[in-house]
Amino acid sequence: MSSSIALHDKTLSELAQGLSVGEYTSRELTEAFLARIERLDGELNSYITVCREEALRDADAADARRAAGKAAPLTGVPMAIKDIFCTEGVRTSCGSKMLDNFISPYDATVIEKLRAEGVVMLGKTNLDEFAMGSSNENSYYGAVKNPWDLTAVPGGSSGGSAAAVAAGLAPAALGTDTGGSIRQPAAFCGITGLKPTYGRVSRYGMIAYASSLDQGGPMARSAEDCARLMNVIAGADPRDSTSVVRSVPNYIEGLNYNLKGLKIGLPKEYFGEGLSAEVESSVRAAIKVFEDAGASVQEISLPHTHLAIPTYYVIAPAEASSNLSRYDGVRFGHRCADPKDLEDLYKRTREEGFGDEVKRRILIGTHTLSEGFFDAYYIKAQKVRRLIRQDFLDAFDQVDVLMGPAAPTPAFDLGAHKDPLSMYLQDLYTIAINLAGIPGISVPAGLAGRRPVGLQILGPHFGEQTLLGVAHQFQQLTDWHRQRPEFGQEHA
Amino acid sequence: MALEHSDVLRAAHLARLGLASQDAEAYVEDLNQILAMVDQLQQVNTDGIAPLAHPLEATQRLRADEVTESNQREHFQQVAPATEQGLYLVPRVVE
Amino acid sequence: MQWEVVIGLEVHAQLATQSKIFSGSSTTYGAEPNTQASAVDLGLPGTLPVLNEQAVAMAVRFGLAVNAAVAGHSVFERKNYFYPDLPKGYQTSQMSQPIVGPGVLEILLEDGTRKSIRIHHAHLEEDAGKSLHEDFQGMTGIDLNRAGTPLLEIVSEPDLRSAKEAVAYVKAIHAIVTYLGISDGNMAEGSLRCDVNISMRPKGQEAYGTRAEIKNVNSFRFIERAIHFEVERQIDLIEDGGRVVQETRLYDPEADETRSMRSKEEANDYRYFPCPDLLPVEVDEAYIEHLRGTLPEMPAEKRARFESELGLSAYDASVLSGTREMADFFEEVKGVCGDAKQAANWVQGELSGRLNKENLDISVSPVSAAQLGGLVKRIVDETINGKAAKQVFAALWDGEGTSADEVIESRGLKQVTDSGAIEAVVDQVIADNPAQVTQYQEAEVDKRGKMIGFFVGQVMKASRGTANPQQVNKVLKDKLDSLS
């Protein structure tokens, strides 16, 4: 191989380039990743389903397409898909026993778009059941390990996607983010993850957790890779009423961003109690890089930050309790054996099919929506949601982007947060962003021992191009995103 | 607004979620912790603030009234637990 | 004690869209089970709803037709409950911010009195599928073809005070939705269904009693019978010292009774909340005005015009404006023949009689409006007489001829008005019936009027019905009287 970097360590952009100059074929690339998955994933558990045959078939089709001169920019590039996106003919489990037997009969819109581009799907990655979790420990298919430290969690809910990309088991992956599920695992695994503006990427075929918060986005090795994927997946979808009709910029063109004069706000609430010293020092060092490049920094206040977690834990479970009613054992998915009547069918199917965390959120959501509680919880939370969003709108009147940590600590140990509440509190820097619907990106910005630290950059609605540009410029000035874990490295 | 054992059972019934009885106790404790955290919201003055249901406050797009779907019954019923003569089967419904 | 019944109605009209309210599946009735159930209708994981613009337009047009406030901003909510014919575990509906606000509908009772019934609101929602209870090894079969069919639920205030009023109200709703073309109104196929809320109170009392809701009544006759049964049941219950419980009941037409639906007995908590997959629906003034411009003449307007402009009786006007098909048919007949009263007589008489007898709807009448108009026109201009007209109608009904003129021509039914020809036939009849002539001449003058009928019959028979009866009468009278 002509390049000194191993295939599995290359960025998506580099692999696309290699394919275009004929350095290797899509089949060779795909086989290399499949071999690596086979060799290493037994330990990581980042994939729920590996699509060997389909991937090779699609790789061959991509090579043929390239030979015919019809290749698109990402034709033949392999990637992983969070197992929350419906993929026709392939099991789509959502990390749940409920859908363990569900072979989706249709493709999500973003999957259609990736197929049309000629991207090869290596497999479906692990996640917290129905995306409910921050550690990937809530999966029916078992916990995922963090390739940087096998005693640590990869984060969640897109833990499998983050771990696979970090370990070189895929050059990039698709994730989803309802309260931080792209950004926090990206931070924990030392990769780059973008949560787009709510409505920027179609939700059709992305299994719903909390519909007004869910958003799919790219997880990759660089901001540039994320930009390339956004060029494929972003845009309005006639099948998703909440997707936004608005022209999609060329995100690659936005990468050439001039940091000089960039106005950065540091929300003081993101640097307070609970933030670990090691994360804070990495984040502040990263901000210094921007300052040195000509950006200005000012402190900003997002006064309702402390209300984000309580607000989220009303709205998300309420929507989830309703979204998950369709899992009733009638038309698809798990069904209990020998139901004696209709109620038994429902109750046992759902008792057997859902895990603890999912049940907890269904119960909370059902309770807060029920008569006598609805106004005090749901309506109240929606009002506070407006206040939280207004904090951001006000902030973006003053600055171009906000910066802070993606998570209060580096990846925590497997099993560290046994009670649900302490787990919930880990999301305090990511959750408000979903409530406000704004975009956010996490980029690698340091290491605390062996565990990566993520810098979170936030922008106004539809500010993805700025975020990707700012993150890309940071990655021109630093090499945190080039760091790879020891795990899986081939030593001569 | 603390929640009692009976509230959990009521929610579980509304959600058609079977709970082995020993589980219910554990849920009462977990849910009360969560609700206690959520109760911070009650301290916030939200007078005059309208509820926000969608982050973008956009309005609904409309679809032209056209038939765009064709029959895919066999395809869809491949993933169904029980069907007969094209129908989904459930335990007898008493009216 | 004197009791008063208080009735409120929820009418569900299936909207006549091509596709479903939130998906591109066909809404055609009667397809093979689950062949019109798409991924969205089945509630497959990941699927999302997109609102049908025609469903919105139809709801707005209904609102305008009942002079209701059309909401510029309305919201879809989820009504959460589990039932096998409800694929997502919630029905997407509207509750707190419906698309049509308060309106009013005037009903006409059989005795000719009018009454205004207030409409509380009307909202859009999706229909559920169907449970088929035939035996599948003790299981129920679920067909989701109907799931997602758009419904407009029209909710009245409790302004109705009798079964007759309730039926008149539903008929008025039926007329409006069919006039607007927003529903086919076919009750047998469930396109128009009704939930009836009934309570009793002592006459003179203001407070309402506890109500029972009778679900899914699907014919005018059943509405009337269900109410009658339920009124008796509630009065008996109260007078026996019992209490009416708030519950859902089912009307069983075979037993002619209502009974409690045990499966829906428990008090539900539907946990309504705004559907996060759908955004608020905005309709602006320009759009509303545009739709106002598309409204046809509504039943009440038509009825008034039939009376004032066409001079029809109140009864005729109300029958002929009762459905859009009836009104359109009548107006076409009238247009062709130019005589409203004759047109009204023929549509309500010969045509309706025959349609009823054969159990046919006017929309599939074997005699078209143009044909009937052509026939009536020939009566009006005296080309044929009434007797011949019936022959022509029968011929057209049986498909023996494409127009009245063709039948008249081919069968020689043209009325004979030539007095020479009529006199010749009369002379022949007098000559052939000397005994009857003698009887006539011997009869007292005031009895002769009746006796002349025999001769008229003979003359008409001899002329194969084509002689002008008035002329025949006159000539006969002159001749017979002059003989004596």
UniProtKB/TrEMBL annotation, chain A:
<dbReference type="GO" id="GO:0005524">
    <property type="term" value="F:ATP binding"/>
</dbReference>
<keyword id="KW-0436">Ligase</keyword>
<feature type="domain" description="Amidase">
    <location>
        <begin position="28"/>
        <end position="468"/>
    </location>
</feature>
<feature type="active site" description="Charge relay system">
    <location>
        <position position="157"/>
    </location>
</feature>
<comment type="similarity">
    <text>Belongs to the amidase family. GatA subfamily.</text>
</comment>
<dbReference type="InterPro" id="IPR000120">
    <property type="entry name" value="Amidase"/>
</dbReference>
<comment type="function">
    <text>Allows the formation of correctly charged Gln-tRNA(Gln) through the transamidation of misacylated Glu-tRNA(Gln) in organisms which lack glutaminyl-tRNA synthetase. The reaction takes place in the presence of glutamine and ATP through an activated gamma-phospho-Glu-tRNA(Gln).</text>
</comment>
<dbReference type="GO" id="GO:0030956">
    <property type="term" value="C:glutamyl-tRNA(Gln) amidotransferase complex"/>
</dbReference>
<protein>
    <recommendedName>
        <fullName>Glutamyl-tRNA(Gln) amidotransferase subunit A</fullName>
        <ecNumber>6.3.5.7</ecNumber>
    </recommendedName>
</protein>
<dbReference type="InterPro" id="IPR023631">
    <property type="entry name" value="Amidase_dom"/>
</dbReference>
<dbReference type="InterPro" id="IPR020556">
    <property type="entry name" value="Amidase_CS"/>
</dbReference>
<comment type="subunit">
    <text>Heterotrimer of A, B and C subunits.</text>
</comment>
<dbReference type="GO" id="GO:0016740">
    <property type="term" value="F:transferase activity"/>
</dbReference>
<keyword id="KW-0547">Nucleotide-binding</keyword>
<feature type="active site" description="Charge relay system">
    <location>
        <position position="82"/>
    </location>
</feature>
From TrEMBL, chain B:
<dbReference type="GO" id="GO:0005524">
    <property type="term" value="F:ATP binding"/>
</dbReference>
<dbReference type="GO" id="GO:0050567">
    <property type="term" value="F:glutaminyl-tRNA synthase (glutamine-hydrolyzing) activity"/>
</dbReference>
<keyword id="KW-0547">Nucleotide-binding</keyword>
<dbReference type="Pfam" id="PF02686">
    <property type="entry name" value="GatC"/>
</dbReference>
<dbReference type="GO" id="GO:0006412">
    <property type="term" value="P:translation"/>
</dbReference>
<protein>
    <recommendedName>
        <fullName>Aspartyl/glutamyl-tRNA(Asn/Gln) amidotransferase subunit C</fullName>
        <ecNumber>6.3.5.-</ecNumber>
    </recommendedName>
</protein>
<dbReference type="InterPro" id="IPR003837">
    <property type="entry name" value="GatC"/>
</dbReference>
<keyword id="KW-0067">ATP-binding</keyword>
<comment type="similarity">
    <text>Belongs to the GatC family.</text>
</comment>
<dbReference type="GO" id="GO:0016740">
    <property type="term" value="F:transferase activity"/>
</dbReference>
<dbReference type="GO" id="GO:0006450">
    <property type="term" value="P:regulation of translational fidelity"/>
</dbReference>
<keyword id="KW-0648">Protein biosynthesis</keyword>
<keyword id="KW-0808">Transferase</keyword>
<keyword id="KW-0436">Ligase</keyword>
<comment type="function">
    <text>Allows the formation of correctly charged Asn-tRNA(Asn) or Gln-tRNA(Gln) through the transamidation of misacylated Asp-tRNA(Asn) or Glu-tRNA(Gln) in organisms which lack either or both of asparaginyl-tRNA or glutaminyl-tRNA synthetases. The reaction takes place in the presence of glutamine and ATP through an activated phospho-Asp-tRNA(Asn) or phospho-Glu-tRNA(Gln).</text>
</comment>
From TrEMBL, chain C:
<dbReference type="InterPro" id="IPR003789">
    <property type="entry name" value="Asn/Gln_tRNA_amidoTrase-B-like"/>
</dbReference>
<dbReference type="GO" id="GO:0016740">
    <property type="term" value="F:transferase activity"/>
</dbReference>
<dbReference type="InterPro" id="IPR017959">
    <property type="entry name" value="Asn/Gln-tRNA_amidoTrfase_suB/E"/>
</dbReference>
<dbReference type="InterPro" id="IPR006075">
    <property type="entry name" value="Asn/Gln-tRNA_Trfase_suB/E_cat"/>
</dbReference>
<keyword id="KW-0808">Transferase</keyword>
<dbReference type="Pfam" id="PF02934">
    <property type="entry name" value="GatB_N"/>
</dbReference>
<comment type="similarity">
    <text>Belongs to the GatB/GatE family. GatB subfamily.</text>
</comment>
<keyword id="KW-0067">ATP-binding</keyword>
<dbReference type="InterPro" id="IPR018027">
    <property type="entry name" value="Asn/Gln_amidotransferase"/>
</dbReference>
<dbReference type="InterPro" id="IPR017958">
    <property type="entry name" value="Gln-tRNA_amidoTrfase_suB_CS"/>
</dbReference>
<dbReference type="GO" id="GO:0050567">
    <property type="term" value="F:glutaminyl-tRNA synthase (glutamine-hydrolyzing) activity"/>
</dbReference>
<dbReference type="InterPro" id="IPR004413">
    <property type="entry name" value="GatB"/>
</dbReference>
<feature type="domain" description="Asn/Gln amidotransferase">
    <location>
        <begin position="328"/>
        <end position="480"/>
    </location>
</feature>
<dbReference type="InterPro" id="IPR014746">
    <property type="entry name" value="Gln_synth/guanido_kin_cat_dom"/>
</dbReference>
<dbReference type="InterPro" id="IPR023168">
    <property type="entry name" value="GatB_Yqey_C_2"/>
</dbReference>
